[in-house]
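Hey team,

Sharing the Class I SAM-dependent methyltransferase run so nobody has to redo it. Sequence (277 residues) first:
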Amino acid sequence: MDMAEALSPDESTPGSFKASEADRQNVAQLATILDLIASKPAVQHLKAWVLAALAPAEGESALDVGSGTGEDLVELTKRVGPSGRAVGVEPSPGLRAESVRRAEGIEVVDGDALSLPFDDASFDAVRCERVLQHISEPGKAVSEMARVLRPGGRIALVDTDWATAIVYPADPEVLSRIFAFLLAETANPYSGRTLRALLADAGLTTVDETAATWLEPQSGAAQGYLTMMATTCAALGVITAPEAEAFQQGLAEAAARGSFHMSLTMYAVAATKAPAG
Ligand SMILES: C[S@@+](CC[C@H](N)C(=O)[O-])C[C@H]1O[C@@H](n2cnc3c(N)ncnc32)[C@H](O)[C@@H]1O
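Structure output:
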């Protein structure tokens, strides 16, 4: 789960990125959430870092696993040009439709990271961003990515580690219930710290890594994800309505004094597959 997943302002239409719930999503809401997250400087930094690490060249083949709204696929498509092939794999029919609506000419196919619909050694470059946290068998997904990568090919994984989520100020007991809920709802909440291990276990060699922290501005205390999170947690009975109100009020008052803090760290690792022979 992305933080946003549990932060749906409307509990009747929960935003879930789980592949098993792909057919009953509120796609407009998910797309809005993905756009908001993509606008964060930390996420933009990691997207640019991945592109530089993969360096997809004209005529090459590139894959984006869990391509969402297609933002990164558009860039891959440009880089490989008409003589290359860039493909997104996305299990959500709504997000597939949304990505094609946004950018005609991109190629997005239905599929699951656990069983990629491609032959062995099909791609020069593979990326997978903030997807593994939604998968309870991330090792299987990364070995699938390694399988479809050609010998000598490049891969980059990006993910959040939910142990790095920090919010201040808040009643510690209320906050721990909110975080416990977030962690329980996430298939693989500590994904960020495992990226190197997943790549090594799949026989790939890490060549570089980085991290970026989403630091929410003071304006995010009163109208950002935390407000939505409190509302959702109250609606689901994780916290009471008065607790949610006190939580939000405390954050708003802190922001008015310039004292609010929210941060979350995401990690990116680039690796290669050994050349043949
Ligand atoms: C948080 S979004 C990230 C989307 C995109 N990678 C980005 O950076 O904006 C997670 C994406 O993973 C997709 N997803 C979830 N489970 C998946 C699976 N088992 N295989 C492939 N994609 C999956 C979701 O449908 C969603 O598009």
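Residues 2, 17, 19, 22, 34, 38, 65-68, 71-72, 89-92, 95, 112-114, 129-131, 134-135 surround S-adenosylmethionine (CB under 6 Å).

Ping me if you want the raw files.
A.
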